[in-house]
Amino acid sequence: MDEILAIITGPFVTILSPDTRLYWMFLLISLYIAIGVIMITAHSSGQSLKQSFAEQLSRKIWWSRSARADYKYYIINGIFYGLIFAPLVLASAEIGLWVETNAIGWFGPLDAPMFDALPMRVAYTIIFFMAFDFGQFITHWIQHQSQYL
Hints:
Blueprint: H1 2-13, H2 24-45, H3 49-56, H4 59-62, H5 65-107, H6 117-145
């Protein structure tokens, strides 16, 4: 039950995790950069700082249809990703054990490994990232196909 709660609250506590792009330190640095850009833009365009800040922080930008869609996507994706893929990752160990057990039953035990550990790790890493990237592509493609995403 704790794992499910952690998955559901995950998108809301990423600000505390240095492993994410929404870590508070990154947000603080981004804020300083944004303030600097607004100040430079205001100065070069002849606009007052107040006008420039009001324009960039307007509800029109931060609560636009596109922004709301991004907020929803972030929260829903964070929750569903954890709920769907965490069990798959946990189940992969069981599946691997099942395959190993049955392969030994079908073919007998190996006298020596077929491959060294390093090539297998490299192959696994390449296949994993290709599958992950393909999953990202399919997700993005589905978003363009559905009016609800």
